[in-house]
Amino acid sequence: MTIAGGLVGWRVFGPSPTGSFDALDDVDQTMFRQLSAQFDAVATRPDEVWTDDWRFEEQPMVLLRASGDRASQWRHAFLVNMSGHVDTSGMRPVQLDALPFLGDVVVSATYGLTNPLNHLPANFDVDDVGGQPVLVMKYSEELLRGEAPSVSSDFPTFLIHEEFHTTAQQSWTYPEGDAPFVDGYPTSDEHLDLLRAELAAFDAAHEEGSGGGLSEIAADLVSLRLERERRWPQLAPEASLEKMEGTATYVERAAARIRGEASTLGRMTASLDHLRQQGQLQGLERDVFYDTGARLGAMLDVLAPDWKDRMADEGATPFSVAAEAVGVDTAPDAARLQELVERYDSAP
């Protein structure tokens, strides 16, 4: 028997979960409890997570029980909300009646076994199922504990972030381009000083919340961004990164807020100062724009509440909507720039 044949044979005739929640082991039970809690939270206020057109709790997904973080091996697959996309009649239904929004769950020892992407040392991939992109996510005991070395979040947060990429963003366009930045991301002191001033404006906006000074602060940070992009035109993909990764981060933070988790957002200037002091600037651009994109979304909830629809309908970015909302479309003149730098340079 070949190795592949032996593997398939073991999966067909080997151990597999029963259809009873009580018979699942602690890892599988924990996964479903966490998934149900996330589904239950976001289903109550979908317009705060994203829009009524994208409901996380209705999306098809495949969850593979893996041996560890980024493991290539997995034991079985749970198919959630997949009955309308594949024939699940030969798979074992899993009864999760006590857990909200988990009425369409089956388990299979062989589903996805022949897809080589599922055996890569990675935590997720995207499968095309009849033209429908489906997120295939591996979960493990350490991920459920929030201790997976390659993942900076817990399982529900990681899952909703990647699911948003998979389904909500599938028709989006990114005309500004994506990283890597042409000619590299500038790390000169001249650029990082201007970036710091912009991040100080983001910090000020977070502190202001929905207060009356938010529009003025937003105009300041838009002006500082336009000046950076005027001096370094290769920075145009910033807006696309904010649209792609920033909105997914916005969604995960919204879900956490609805679940009652306290915000742990720190000062962006402090993070940049630390990275500069440590000389750890590799990957800075992605770390920054996950966060600024999410924070722009929170600002636009106040300044331009229709911003979410415009991402897909108009190809807009959070930054372009913010610039339009505050009426700033050109870089500041020298006097205005000096004023802005002095205003935000003293930020802690």
The biggest sheet amounts to: 6 strands, mixed
Structural class: alpha+beta
**Any low-confidence stretches, pLDDT <50, length ≥5?**
1-15
Helix proportion: 40-55%
Number of DSSP strand runs:
6
Order of helices and strands: HHHEEEEEEHHHHHHHHHH
Strand order of the largest sheet: 3-4-2-1-6-5
Radius of gyration: 23 Å
Q: With helices defined by DSSP (H or I, 4 residues minimum), what is the helix count?
A: 13
Taken as a percent bin, the fraction of beta residues is 5-15%
Q: Can you lay out the helices and strands and say which pair or pack?
A:
Layout: H1 3-13, H2 26-44, H3 46-49, E1 61-66, E2 74-80, E3 92-93, E4 105-108, E5 124-129, E6 132-139, H4 141-144, H5 155-168, H6 189-208, H7 214-231, H8 238-258, H9 268-278, H10 284-303, H11 307-313, H12 318-326, H13 334-345
Parallel strand pairs: 1-6
Antiparallel strand pairs: 1-2, 2-4, 3-4, 5-6
Helix pairs in contact: 5-8, 6-7, 6-9, 6-10, 6-13, 7-12, 8-10, 10-12
In short:
The protein is of the alpha+beta class.
Q: Can you walk through the features of this model?
A:
- The protein has 348 residues and is an alpha+beta fold.
- The protein is built from 13 helices and 6 strands.
- It has a 6-stranded mixed β-sheet with strand order 3-4-2-1-6-5.
- It is elongated.
- It starts with a helix and ends with a helix.
